[in-house]
C-alpha cells in the first residue's frame, strides 16, 4: 500500500480552553481532492491551520507522508482566505507568484531568471499571464484567487491546502481553479479545500471531511452526503439544506 | 546660497548634513516595512521607549546606543506579551507600555538634573552632532541596510503574507523582533537630528509618500529614502537659516513633500483621481 499523504490521529485543538477540534482522526491517500465542509464555527480553518502546524495542538499526532509537518513544510502549499491579504500591498502579480519559489530558495539567495520564467509559466497555467505587471489590487476577486493558486503551483508542492478559495470568485475563475485542482490530483498531488457550503461538493471533491468540532463523517463524497449524516453536522440549518436539494 | 558657503566653511555643519542624510536614508528604508505591516503606532511607541535607556546610559556613563536598544527591545517584547496573553488589544497594549517607558525616562532624566539634555533628546539638535554620533549613525546605517538587503526575501514575505511565511517554516516572531531591533537602532541614529518625539514622522511620512508613488516594494524603498534625504537637507537649511529646531523643520519638509504627492501623484494622487472621475462621467453624457 502507498504511504498515506496525511494521517491525523486523535487531534484536539483549543483556543484558551475552548475546544475547537475534538478528537479528529483522518487518513488521506495521495491523489485525492478532499473538501472540508461544515457549518460556521465548525473549526474548518482551525483544522487546516493545525494541519500546517500554525497553531499549537493540545493532543494528537499529525503525519505527512509518514513524517512530521515540520520536516515536510516546504512540500505543502497554502492558499489563504482572500480577506487575509492586504490587496493594496505594493507588489505586482508576477512578483506575488514569485513568492511561491521562496520556500525552495536558500537564505540570502534571490529569485533569478529561472525562477521568474517558472513563475510566468505558473501564471500562464491559470490564464493570468497578461496581467503579470498589474498591481494585485487591480484584479477581480476571481483573478486574485487564480494568482494565489499560481503562487501555490510555483512552490512545486505535493500537498495543497486552500482556505475558502471560492468566496467572492466569479463562475469562470471557479471553473478554472477546480480544473487545475483536479489536474493536480491526477498527477498524484493531494489537495485539501475548506469549502463553506455543500453546493457542488459532489462535483468538486472525491472525498469529504464533514466537521462540526468533532469529525461527523469522512469518506467518499456519496457516502458522506446523506441526509442523516448532513443533519447531524448542520442540525438546525438542515431545512435550508433540503431546499438546496441536497 | 549662504547655506552652501557655510557648509564648506564649518565642520559642524558638514557633520550635521552627513548625519541627516544618513538618517533620511535609513528611516525611509525601515519606514516602508513599518507602514506596510501596519505598525506605524509601534514605530511611535518604540521611538519613545528608548528614552529610559538613553537616560540610564548617561547615568552609567556608557554609550547611549546600548541602553536605547535595550529599553526599546524590552518594550517591544512587553507590548507583545500583554496583547498575546490577555484580551487587551494590540494598540491598547502599545499605549500602556510606551507611555510607561517614556514617563520613567523623564523621571530618570529629571533626577539627573540635566534638563537641557532632555530637550535635545526630545526635539533633536542636529547642529550639535559630534563626530562620535556621526560614526554611530554610519555604523547603524550600514547594519540596517545590510540587514534589509540580506533578508529582503524574508521581510517581504512576512510583511505581505505572514501566514505563508510561517507555513513554510520562517521564524515569523523572530523576524518581528528583529525588525523591532532595527527600528530601535534607527531611532537611536535619529535622536540627534529629529529627536525622539518626531522620529516617527521620519519613519512614516517619506514611506507613506513613496507608497502613493509606486506599486513595487523595492521602488518604494528607494523613493522613501530619497524623500527622506531631501527632507533632511531642506530641513537642515531652514533650521540653519532661520535658527529653528532641526527636528521640526525636517519633519515639516517631509510633510510638505507628502502633501504634494498626495495631491499630484500620477496614479494614486487626489487630483488625477478626481480628473479621471470627471472625464469618465463626461464620456457617459
UniProtKB/TrEMBL annotation, chain A:
UniProt signal peptide: none
GO terms of molecular function: ATP binding
UniProt superkingdom: Bacteria
Record domain ABC transporter: where: 6-238
UniProt entry tagged with the keyword ATP-binding: yes
Pfam families: ABC_tran
InterPro entries documented for this protein: AAA+_ATPase (IPR003593), ABC_transporter-like_ATP-bd (IPR003439), ABC_transporter-like_CS (IPR017871), Metal_Ion_Import_ABC (IPR050153), P-loop_NTPase (IPR027417)
Keywords: ATP-binding, Nucleotide-binding, Transport
Family: Belongs to the ABC transporter superfamily.
PANTHER family in UniProt: IRON TRANSPORT SYSTEM ATP-BINDING PROTEIN HI_0361-RELATED, METAL TRANSPORT SYSTEM ATP-BINDING PROTEIN TM_0124-RELATED
Protein name: Zinc ABC transporter ATP-binding protein
Originating gene: troB
From TrEMBL, chain B:
Keyword S-adenosyl-L-methionine: no
Keywords assigned: Membrane, Transmembrane, Transmembrane helix, Transport
Subcellular location: Cell membrane; Membrane
Membrane protein topology class: Multi-pass membrane protein
TM regions (residue ranges): 12-36, 56-82, 94-114, 134-152, 164-188, 194-213, 220-238, 244-264
Record-stated family: Belongs to the ABC-3 integral membrane protein family.
Protein's recorded name: Manganese transport system membrane protein MntC
Amino acid at each position: 500500500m502507498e504511504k498515506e499523504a496525511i494521517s491525523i490521529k486523535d487531534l484536539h485543538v483549543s483556543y484558551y480552553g475552548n475546544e475547537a477540534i475534538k478528537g479528529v482522526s483522518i487518513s488521506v491517500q495521495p491523489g485525492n481532492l478532499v473538501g472540508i465542509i461544515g457549518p460556521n464555527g465548525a473549526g474548518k480553518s482551525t483544522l487546516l491551520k493545525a494541519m500546517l502546524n500554525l497553531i499549537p495542538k493540545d493532543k494528537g499526532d499529525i503525519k505527512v507522508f509518514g513524517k512530521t509537518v515540520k520536516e515536510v513544510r516546504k512540500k505543502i502549499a497554502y492558499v489563504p482566505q482572500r480577506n487575509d491579504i492586504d490587496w493594496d500591498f505594493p507588489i505586482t502579480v508576477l512578483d506575488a507568484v514569485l513568492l511561491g519559489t521562496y520556500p525552495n530558495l536558500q537564505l540570502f539567495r534571490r529569485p533569478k531568471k529561472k525562477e521568474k520564467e517558472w513563475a510566468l509559466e505558473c501564471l500562464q497555467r491559470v490564464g493570468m499571464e497578461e496581467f503579470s505587471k498589474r498591481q494585485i489590487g487591480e484584479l477581480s476577486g476571481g483573478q486574485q484567487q487564480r494568482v494565489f493558486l499560481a503562487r501555490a503551483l510555483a512552490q512545486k508542492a505535493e500537498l495543497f491546502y486552500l482556505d475558502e478559495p471560492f468566496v467572492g470568485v466569479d463562475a469562470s475563475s471557479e471553473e478554472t481553479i477546480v480544473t487545475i485542482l483536479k489536474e493536480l490530483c491526477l498527477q498524484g498531488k493531494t489537495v485539501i479545500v475548506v469549502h463553506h457550503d455543500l453546493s457542488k461538493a459532489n462535483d468538486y471533491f472525491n472525498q469529504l471531511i464533514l466537521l462540526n468540532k468533532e469529525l461527523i463523517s469522512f469518506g467518499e463524497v456519496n457516502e458522506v452526503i446523506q441526509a442523516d449524516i448532513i443533519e447531524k453536522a448542520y442540525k438546525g440549518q438542515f431545512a435550508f439544506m433540503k431546499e438546496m436539494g441536497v | 546660497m549662504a547655506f552652501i558657503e557655510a557648509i564648506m566653511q564649518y565642520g559642524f555643519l558638514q557633520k550635521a548634513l552627513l548625519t541627516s542624510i544618513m538618517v533620511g536614508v535609513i528611516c525611509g528604508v525601515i519606514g516602508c516595512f513599518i507602514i506596510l505591516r501596519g505598525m506605524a503606532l509601534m514605530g511611535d511607541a518604540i521611538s519613545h521607549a528608548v528614552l529610559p535607556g538613553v537616560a540610564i546610559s548617561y547615568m552609567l556613563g556608557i554609550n547611549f546606543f546600548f541602553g536605547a536598544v535595550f529599553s526599546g527591545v524590552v518594550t517591544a517584547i512587553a507590548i507583545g506579551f500583554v496583547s498575546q496573553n490577555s484580551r487587551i488589544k494590540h494598540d491598547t497594549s502599545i499605549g500602556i507600555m510606551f507611555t510607561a517607558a517614556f514617563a520613567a525616562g523623564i523621571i530618570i532624566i529629571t533626577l539627573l538634573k540635566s534638563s537641557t539634555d532632555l530637550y535635545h533628546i526630545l526635539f533633536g539638535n542636529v547642529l550639535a552632532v559630534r563626530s562620535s554620533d556621526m560614526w554611530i549613525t554610519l555604523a547603524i546605517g550600514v547594519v540596517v541596510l545590510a540587514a534589509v538587503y540580506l533578508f529582503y526575501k524574508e521581510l517581504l514575505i512576512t510583511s505581505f503574507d505572514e501566514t505563508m511565511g510561517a507555513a513554510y517554516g520562517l521564524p515569523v516572531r523572530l523576524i518581528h523582533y528583529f525588525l523591532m531591533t532595527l527600528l530601535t537602532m534607527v531611532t537611536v541614529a535619529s535622536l540627534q537630528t529629529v529627536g525622539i518625539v518626531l522620529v516617527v514622522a521620519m519613519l512614516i511620512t517619506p514611506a507613506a509618500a513613496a507608497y502613493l508613488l509606486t506599486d513595487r516594494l523595492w521602488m518604494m524603498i528607494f523613493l522613501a529614502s530619497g524623500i527622506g534625504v531631501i527632507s533632511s537637507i531642506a530641513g537642515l537649511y531652514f533650521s540653519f537659516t532661520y535658527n529653528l529646531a532641526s527636528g521640526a523643520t525636517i519633519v515639516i519638509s517631509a510633510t510638505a513633500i507628502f502633501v504634494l504627492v498626495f495631491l499630484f501623484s500620477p496614479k494614486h494622487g487626489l487630483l488625477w483621481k478626481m480628473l479621471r472621475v470627471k472625464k469618465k462621467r463626461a464620456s457617459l453624457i
